[in-house]
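Journal club side-thread
Mid-discussion, someone asked how the predicted structure for our own chain would compare to the paper's figures. Pasting it here so we can look after the session.
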Amino acid sequence: MRVAILAHEKFPDRAKTALGVLRYTDDDVVAVLDRDSAGQRVNDFVPDVQDAPIREGMADLAADDVDTLLIGIAPIGGGFDESWREDVRTALEYGCDVVSGLHYFLAEDEEIAALAAENDCEIRDVRKPPEDLTVSQGVAGEVDAEIILTVGTDCSVGKMTVSMELARDAREAGHDAAVIPTGQTGIMIEGWGNPIDRVVSDFTAGAVEEMILEKGDEHDYLFVEGQGSIVHPAYSAVTCGILHGSMADKLVLCHDAGRKEIHGYESFSLPDLSTYVDLYEGLAAPVADSEVVAGALNTSSLDDDDAAREAVDAYASALDVPASDAIRFGTDDLLAELL
């Protein structure tokens, strides 16, 4: 499939969905749409993902060049920016399907829905959950697979990336591993999953449990994509639902090097790392004997490898567990502890 990714004025720093798809998709990304960076290429900004030209808009592509427009931005609140409408309109007029991870459902937008029907296009709102979800039965821990959950000190620290890297590298090492996708980016990459942050609160743990029961006896290891943070003023409920629903055996604590405040809520400072270990393990304890056994540090803000290595070593020392930057230094040390 040939995909164009919409990431206007946010690429790469605020377009984590776009980056995740560029890093892990099997599809051919023909262009990234960003008005501010048009004329450059993806690898000018991020060298270790699929490269593609950056264009100003869909109108700069020919209809025969692309099959799907993917919304590659996940703004706080998940709203639809009206400045994107022209690109969506053009994509549908080209006959392209549109994939969106927004809380704003494009299929319920009158103009967009009419254009999709007129041009025989599919609108896929990946954040629209199934209608048959229910409460957790507290049985995820009974599956044969080892369940490994990525948890975070904040949102946007790399939980999805770490989950994908660990599962991929485990498979390459000969282990039978799968990802349990819980957010829009993971769902887009894997092609299935439950969007936990859109599920009715009573059903969040059940939605995670349902996926684990579906895959748990088919694989030896399940890497569950975490969301948010247990201390986040807006997203902690999602984090707790995943923690309890997954009944994880092991936890990987993810952090962004140098971050001191909660992303988007900078009046809230991040607590000490030991506080997170106590909170995650203590909150999990009534339903599962989950333990933080490894750490993943995102050092993308550090240009120098030596400084990044020092930061990872300090992070491992603070947690007293093995740690790595999964992108920069690989996952060998983490997998040695997890598998």
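Post-session note: Residues 187 and 272 are 32 Å apart (CA to CA).
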